[in-house]
Write a structure and sequence with these properties.
Blueprint (H helix, E strand, L loop, with lengths): L39 H12 L19 H9 L12 H17 L11 E5 L2 H22 L8 E4 L4 H9 L3 E4 L22 E7 L11 H15 L5 E4 L7 H4 L12 E7 L11 E5 L11 E3 L6 E3 L9 H39 L2 E5 L7 E6 L9 H9 L7 E3 L8 E6 L6 H20 L13
Parallel strand pairs: 2-3, 2-4, 4-5, 5-6
Antiparallel strand pairs: 1-7, 6-7, 8-9, 10-11, 11-13, 12-13
Helix pairs in contact: 2-8, 3-8, 4-5, 8-10, 9-10
The chain binds pyridoxal-5'-phosphate.
The site of pyridoxal-5'-phosphate has 15 residues, from α4.
Family: Belongs to the group II decarboxylase family.
Catalytic activity: L-glutamate + H(+) = 4-aminobutanoate + CO2
GO molecular function, one term: glutamate decarboxylase activity
Amino acid sequence: MALHEMKAPKGTDARTDVFASPLSERVLPKYRMPEEPSLPEAVYAMLHNELLLDGNAAQNLATFCTTWSDDEVRRLMDECLDKNMIDKDEYPQTAEIEARCVNILADLWNAPEVVGGRAMGCSTTGSSEAAMLGGLALKWRWRERRRAEGKPVDRPNIVAGPVQICWDKFARYFDVELRQVPLEDGATGLRPHQLREYVDENTIGVVAILGVTFTCDYEPVAEIAAELDRIQEETGLDVPIHVDAASGGFVAPFLHRDLVWDFRLERVSSINASGHKYGLAPLGVGWAVWRTAELLPKDLVFDVNYLGGDLPTFALNFSRPGGEIVAQYYNFLRLGRAGYRRVQGVCAETARYLAGQVAEMGPFTLLYDGQGALPAVSYTLTDPAGAGFSLYDLSDQLRMRGWQVPSYPLPADRQETVVQRVLIRHGVGRDEVDLLARDMRDSLERLRRGKPADTERAGFHH
Ligand SMILES: *Cc1c(COP(=O)(O)O)cnc(C)c1O
């Protein structure tokens, strides 16, 4: 029977209740599309309930991504459901809003000559796509330079510290060697003096990370640039920087305004950031911005004429919803610089509070207390061998209360250090973090006693 056949006139039949209908007695089709259509409210109720099995996004302290939005954002997303951002001729206002965002970001990141709305950049699906576009521009420019000099162009490399997976993808998909600089003892990211060993004539660029995924720390972009200046003086190699500011691009301009990491550094040729992380937009938007238009090679930009009008496009995909872009602009207008400063500042304070709690608990050594870079806390077990439990055990315990707090080893060469990381972002409040700290204490107590979980506390009654 099709789901829709279960419907009786409203109010006349117990079967009008979705969960009293035969549908609820059967499993949903999983491997083959059903023959017949069904009523939307019945299907909705089934899927709504199935989705409850997903983790609770608000308790997911592993993600950098937005999990809280104004109702107005939800409304705008709904209104933009049918707007294809690639179709700039049909939806010129959405296209204009995208361009405004690019200009706002270029200005926020201190690009030269952004007057008159002429900043060079684009929206993407996230930082991954934006990073690929930045990497491609680097590769193209390097190749043009090499060809002009009559030199081989078959072995490009890109140099970086502990990168997010998107740079591994860039390297493999676009046939570039990723020269990954290992972490020094005690370091949380690339250290400038390491560069010499890795940079050569085939280096298309250095990636500096503002907000290292594993440690939440900023890499010292200005010092990296200064070291590349020295390398240029000594060897003639002129190596540009792409800043992967996936998270930090929306934090540093508000909380660390004296930190020079952006287009104020001439060597920084492009920057990516995730609108859907600390940019506070809902999932599905990132940004790539170039210092000047000349840094984006023209043959990477395609002109499309079959949507009516001539439309330049630089992107890996084509059709994409416009809602996230509109929501990004909404946040810019809604919060302004003062609002972003306040939102990120409150997150940093909450991180500091949690860091204080974690420090008091006893078995942990703080690696990062949420000050100076991303609003986050990371720590390790002071005595992993003697603790009687691992951070993975603690993650499991916290999971029983719904908290997602990841434990993982640091990248090479610090892989013997296992850390735990909590990200504080918009919507994760002080009270929530206080409850997390309480659950951490309870978990530690259980782990110390070596007893199985206290299931009563977790809300299971038999
Ligand atoms: C999250 C992140 C990325 C990938 O960004 P998406 O928006 O998820 O594609 C890249 N680099 C860094 C440093 C990140 O934190």
